[in-house]
Write a structure and sequence with these properties.
Elements: E1 13-19, E2 25-32, E3 38-47, H1 48-63, H2 70-84, H3 89-92, E4 97-102, H4 127-130, E5 132-136, E6 155-160, H5 187-193, E7 202-206, H6 212-221, E8 224-234, E9 244-246, H7 252-255, E10 256-258, H8 263-267, E11 274-282, H9 291-299, E12 302-308, H10 314-329, H11 334-347, E13 350-352, E14 361-363, H12 368-371, E15 374-378, H13 381-384
Parallel strand pairs: 1-4, 4-5, 5-15, 6-7, 6-8, 8-11, 11-12
Antiparallel strand pairs: 1-2, 2-3, 8-9, 9-10, 12-15, 13-14
C-alpha cells in the first residue's frame, strides 16, 4: 500500500513517485487528487542507466562557465520531459502543482529545467514555468518530540561563512561573458541577510563568527523559526553520514559540522513549523540527492527545507532569496514563494553594482544555472499543498 504521506488532497495536485532502481525500467506511480487519491503505476521506456548520462549532461551544461548555449539544455529538457512526463501528460493537463519523489539518478535531476510536453504546455516551457514543484520526504515534519511549539518571540538565524569563494565552476573573471570578477567581500553576508525581510528579530553570525561553537551556542540560546545557512555543504556519496556543513571553506576539518551520530537532532532544537535554507549544498550526481541533509534537519525538527543541488554565485542567490522571504512574509506557501522567486530571475536581467566609478553590469539570469538547482522539501503531499 502506498504510504499516506504521498497522497495529496486538493484536485489540482498530483504526486509523481519515480522508482529508478538499477537494472530495470523506471516505474512511475501517479497519485491524483482529482481521482480521489487513487494511484496508478506504469513502466517508463527507460532504465536508470539510460537516464544517468542525460542527468549528468544537463547538470554539467547548467554549471558550465561561461554559460553554455541554452540550445542543448532545451533539447535535453525536451527529451527528459517526454520520458518522465510524456506518458502521463493527459493526466497532468489540469494539474497546477506537482509533488515529487525520486531515487537513483533522478534524485540529482533539476526537474524545474526539464521541458513540459506540448500536451501539458503548448509553448513547451520549462516545467517550473508551468507548475509549482514540491519534493516530499517523510523525515520532515515529524520533528523532535522535545522541540518546543512556536514561541512568542521566534527569531530568524543567519549564518554565512568567513571566506567568499566561487563555486566549482565559476563565472569567468572578464566582463565580456557576463561574468563578475571574484573578490573577497560581503556577498554571502548579503545573501544571508535577506532573511531580515521576514520581519522577525534576526541574529546573524558572519565571517569569523560563523564557527561551529557559535552555531551551537546560537541554536541553543534562541527559538529558531527560520535558519539560513549561506555556507558550503558537502555530500559524501560513499558514506552519507560523513556529509557536513562547512562553515569555513579554508579549514574543512576544524570548521565542519558533520551529520554523523545524529548531532543535529541531539543539539539543534528548531521550532515546530521551522524552515531551513541550505543555499550552498552541492549534491553532485551521485544518485542520493539532498537526502542526508533532509533527514538530518528533519530529525532536528525542520518541517520545510529549501536546498540547492549546486552552489550559485551569491549575487544571484541574494536576488532570489530576497524575493522569496518577502513572499513568505506575506503568507505565501514555501513552494509557491520559491517558484515566484525563480520566475523573477527568468523574467529580468541581474544587475550588479561594480563599485564607484564603474559601470553596473547586467546579464541574463534566465540560464538554468541561476534558478534550476533549488528545491523545496516538505514532509507530505498534503503539507506541500
Amino acid at each position: 500500500m502506498l504510504p499516506e504521506h504521498f497522497r495529496p488532497a486538493p484536485d489540482d495536485v498530483a504526486t509523481l513517485i519515480y522508482d529508478a532502481g538499477p537494472g530495470r525500467p523506471v516505474r512511475l506511480t501517479v497519485v491524483s487528487g482529482s481521482a480521489g487519491n487513487a494511484s496508478t503505476t506504469l513502466t517508463l521506456n527507460a532504465t536508470a542507466e539510460d537516464l544517468q548520462p542525460l542527468v549528468t549532461e544537463i547538470r554539467q551544461l547548467a554549471l558550465h562557465r561561461p554559460p553554455a548555449s541554452p540550445g542543448r539544455i532545451v533539447r535535453l529538457g525536451d527529451e527528459l520531459g517526454e520520458i518522465l512526463l510524456g506518458p502521463i501528460a493527459e493526466q497532468l493537463r489540469q494539474v497546477s502543482r506537482l509533488v515529487l519523489a525520486a531515487d537513483g539518478p533522478l534524485s540529482d535531476l533539476p526537474f524545474g529545467a526539464i521541458r513540459a510536453p506540448r500536451l501539458i504546455d503548448a509553448r513547451g516551457r520549462y516545467l517550473i514555468e508551468t507548475r509549482t514543484l514540491c519534493w516530499v520526504d517523510p523525515a520532515l515534519g515529524a520533528g523532535n518530540a522535545s522541540n518546543a511549539p512556536a514561541g512568542e518571540r521566534p527569531i530568524a538565524l543567519a549564518f554565512a561563512d568567513a571566506v567568499y569563494r566561487p563555486p566549482a565552476r565559476p563565472l569567468g573573471a572578464s566582463m565580456s561573458d557576463g561574468g563578475i570578477s571574484w573578490r573577497r567581500h560581503a556577498a554571502r553576508r548579503n545573501q544571508a541577510s535577506t532573511i531580515g525581510a521576514l520581519g522577525l528579530p534576526m541574529v546573524s553570525r558572519f565571517g569569523p563568527a560563523a564557527s561551529p561553537t557559535l552555531f551551537w551556542e546560537s541554536t541553543a540560546s534562541y527559538a529558531v523559526r527560520f535558519l539560513h545557512l549561506a555556507v558550503e555543504a558537502r555530500i559524501d556519496s560513499g558514506n552519507p553520514d560523513s556529509s557536513a556543513l562547512l562553515l569555513s571553506p579554508e579549514r574543512y576539518d576544524e570548521q565542519a559540522i558533520p551529520l554523523a551520530a545524529g548531532q543535529l537532532a541531539s543539539r539543534l532544537a528548531l521550532e515546530r513549523e521551522s524552515l531551513v535554507i541550505l543555499s550552498g549544498l552541492d549534491t553532485g550526481d551521485h544518485g542520493i540527492g539532498p537526502g542526508p541533509f533532509v533527514e538530518a534537519f528533519g530529525a532536528a525538527g525542520a518541517s520545510s527545507l529549501v536546498v540547492s543541488l549546486w552552489p550559485v554565485i551569491d549575487e544571484s542567490a541574494t536576488r532570489l532569496f530576497g524575493a522569496f522571504y518577502r513572499l513568505v512574509a506575506e503568507g505565501m506557501p514555501t513552494a509557491a514563494a520559491l517558484r515566484r522567486a525563480q520566475l523573477g530571475l527568468l523574467a529580468q536581467p541581474l544587475r550588479f553594482d561594480q563599485g564607484e566609478g564603474r559601470t553596473p553590469v547586467e546579464f541574463d539570469a534566465a540560464h538554468p544555472y541561476y534558478w534550476a538547482g533549488y528545491r523545496v522539501y516538505r514532509g507530505s503531499a498534503g503539507s506541500c499543498s
